[in-house]
Specification:
Elements (H helix, E strand, L loop, with lengths): L5 H11 L3 H10 L4 H10 L15 E9 L2 E9 L2 H4 L2 H16 L4 H5 L2 E2 L2 E2 H12 L3 E10 L3 E8 L6 E2 L1 E8 L4 H18 L11 H16 L5 H19 L14 H12 L4 E9 L11 H9 L2
Antiparallel strand pairs: 1-2, 1-7, 2-5, 3-4, 6-8, 8-9
Helix pairs in contact: 1-2, 1-3, 2-3, 5-7, 9-10
Length: about 300
């Protein structure tokens, strides 16, 4: 039997909002596997979690850089938020984001790019030695579109280029770039708040769809209704899942009533040219890194390779 620690129970409760005893039972049933425990709770109707919600454990900053039709995001982690507020750390993240534009978001290429009188990697190691805390360039991405613009937004901003959440939205259009940039920023704000997992239903990974259907099927069959009714219940819940998780079907957070696909239709008419979202990226500091007692420094060290 897996050793279920109090911290594991707390982490599961933080993710799902389920009771402590239910979380303990879920972890016991799943052999200590966190995601299986989340699914177990959802099947029992004890959790409202709609998708994976990895607990944010790492500190650091997201850097954003853009020039009209191309944008970049970089995540640089630190052990503490105190270091993330350090001016030297901030300057490093800003510069790394600018350099990411030149290497199309390839972290390996980014680490060997010149920075000051050294490389990005060497500069990072110098900071680690000076500040006395592990840091890592965890990931980077570049989004480009032609014709069109890449809108950006930074949430919990330390400055216009740095924050805890960074978003890029690529708008494909021949419309006025100034108008597209303003719309792109609003859409990026929406993505920061709503955290969609895909642009359209067709873009949702097959394994995610299968997982959701399996959970909804278990929930529906617990009602004891006939199979044909159960199937309709599953389809209804899947529709709601797409409305909550797919960008084009989500309700625009700016006005709280218009679906994103309708926002684009209206913009196309107002701007005098078709406007479409080519793609989007959302980075949040530490997403997907689960904190375990005493292991965070280890996690950052592994990411940094030092």
């Amino acid at each position: 039997m897996a050793n279920i620690s109090a911290s594991m129970v707390k982490d599961l409760r933080d993710k799902t909002g389920a009771g402590m005893m239910d979380c303990k039972a879920a972890l016991a049933e799943s052999g200590g596997d966190m995601e299986s425990a989340v699914d177990w709770l959802r099947k029992k109707g004890l959790s409202k979690a709609a998708k994976k919600a990895g607990r944010v454990a790492a500190e650091g900053l997201i850097g954003v850089a853009a020039r009209s039709d191309v944008g970049a995001l970089v995540e640089v982690n630190s052990e503490t938020d105190f270091v993330a507020r350090n001016d030297q750390f901030k300057d490093f993240v800003k510069t790394a984001a600018q350099l990411a534009l030149e290497v199309e978001g390839d972290v390996e290429k980014l680490l060997v790019k010149p920075m000051g009188g050294a490389t990005v990697d060497a500069t990072l190691k110098e900071m680690i030695a000076k500040i006395g805390e592990n840091m890592s360039v965890r990931r980077a991405v570049v989004l480009a579109v032609s014709p069109g613009v890449v809108g950006t937004y930074v949430h919990n901003a330390e400055s216009p280029e740095l924050g805890k959440i960074g978003v890029l939205v690529a708008l494909k259009s021949t419309a006025d770039p100034a108008k597209l940039t303003a719309l792109g920023r609003q859409l990026a704000m929406h993505v920061a708040a709503a955290a969609p997992i895909a642009l359209t239903a067709a873009h949702v990974p097959a394994e995610t769809v299968e997982r959701e259907r399996a959970i909804y099927a278990d929930q529906a069959r617990q009602s004891g209704k006939p199979e044909n009714v159960v199937e309709k219940m599953i389809e209804g819940r899947m529709r709601k899942f797409y409305e909550e998780s797919v960008l084009l079907q989500q309700v625009f957070v700016i006005d709280g009533e218009t679906r994103i696909e309708k926002v684009l239709e209206k913009a196309s008419k107002d701007f005098g040219a078709p406007v479409a979202i080519e793609g989007f990226v959302r980075f949040q500091v530490g997403e997907g890194i689960d904190k375990t007692d005493g292991d965070f420094a280890d996690e950052v060290s592994k990411l940094s390779g030092v």
